[in-house]
Design brief:
336 residues, four-stranded antiparallel beta sheet, five-stranded mixed beta sheet, alpha+beta
Length: 336
């Protein structure tokens, strides 16, 4: 596996990895690359008795290419391979033949890459390092060219901050990264590091969703290029926690009880975070305690209502509205 440090000239910076900032998304070229393989023919060609036969075969190939149906492409091509085809038809057959390695690469890439977080316990608000893993394509003759002019990947990031009161705010961004050096995809996969820049915030929990796609472009095959179409490579979701969460994770019951007894807004985040790490009997006892507090709370305390029900949602996954006290109490009565 070849690990390549990506230049980030696209964002006007200079470092060894691509940095993604949460700001206005970079809009990658939305135009899908489609090869022009069926030529318009002059009248003397269209009068050929076999013209409709060849046009039918080329239409089948065009549809099979659109469907990424390698078997159908090979089947149609095998019928006409080695025969005295007209020059105009043979040019199109040769073009479709050259597309097969590109389709194989697209199929091999599809949903088979990985996005890996490089930090075991990432801190919400701090920069976070990730790794895109692009799979090897055995026996491929294609080379992924360096730079952004040919082979490009888009990285789309969605960052959702969740407060202890159930409030959610989401920011999105995207970046386009290229291959730093010519890479024969048959011999090696790629590992492309990138960094999600620090995003300030006081979230109790941060959810990071990343999606990576191969963008329309091309790969080199010998002395020529073949088109590559948009292909989803990988997607995954990660969680980042506030600084100090490691201590809470090791003793969640202790932190849950101590901070809950204080009943202060400033301690809500610690209780909410601790709720994610409770298990078994400790989780059951925490549910009972939160339901008890919900019964005796002041009906005018909207913040405490949202905090209590948001924490109950973490503990139970019941999917009830966060500000519906009666719905949660009814749920508690039914599940005793």
């Amino acid at each position: 596996m070849l690990r390549l440090a990506l230049p980030i000239a696209l964002l006007g910076l200079s470092a060894c990895v691509t940095e993604i900032y949460v700001e206005e998304p970079i809009d990658p070229d939305p135009v899908e690359t489609q090869p022009i393989v069926i030529e318009r023919q002059p009248a003397e060609v269209t009068s050929d008795p076999r013209y409709l036969e060849f046009q039918g075969a080329l239409a089948q190939l065009q549809q099979a290419y659109a469907d990424r149906d390698i078997q159908e492409m090979r089947r149609v091509l095998s019928i006409h391979r080695g025969k005295p085809n007209p020059e105009w038809a043979q040019r199109s057959f040769d073009r479709f033949e050259s597309l097969i390695p590109a389709v194989l690469l697209e199929l091999q890439f599809e949903n088979s890459g990985q996005v890996l977080m490089q930090t075991e316990m990432p801190i919400a608000g701090a920069e976070t390092d990730f790794l895109i893993v692009v799979p090897q394509v055995p026996s491929s003759n294609l080379v992924l060219p360096k730079g952004l002019d040919h082979c490009r990947f888009s990285v789309e990031a969605s960052v959702t901050d969740i407060s202890a009161f159930g409030e959610r705010s989401t920011q999105r961004t995207s970046a386009v990264v290229g291959v730093p050096e010519d890479t024969p995809i048959s011999s090696e996969g790629l590992e492309l590091p990138f960094r999600l820049a620090a995003i300030p915030g006081a979230a109790a929990k941060r959810e990071i969703t990343l999606s990576v796609e191969l963008l329309p472009g091309d790969a080199r095959s010998g002395d020529s290029f073949v088109p590559l179409r948009r292909t989803k490579l990988a997607a995954d979701q990660f969680t980042a926690w506030p600084d100090g969460t490691e201590a809470i994770r090791k003793a969640p019951k202790k932190h849950f009880d101590v901070f809950l007894r204080r009943r202060q807004k400033s301690t809500a985040r610690t209780v909410y975070v601790a709720a994610h790490f409770l298990e078994g009997q400790e989780k059951k006892e925490a549910v009972d305690e939160m339901l008890r507090l919900l019964r005796i709370m002041s009906l005018d305390d909207a913040d405490f209502l949202r905090f209590t029900t948001a924490t109950l949602e973490v503990l139970t996954g019941a999917g009830l509205p966060l500000n519906d006290r009666d719905a949660w109490l009814n749920w508690g009565d039914r599940n005793r």
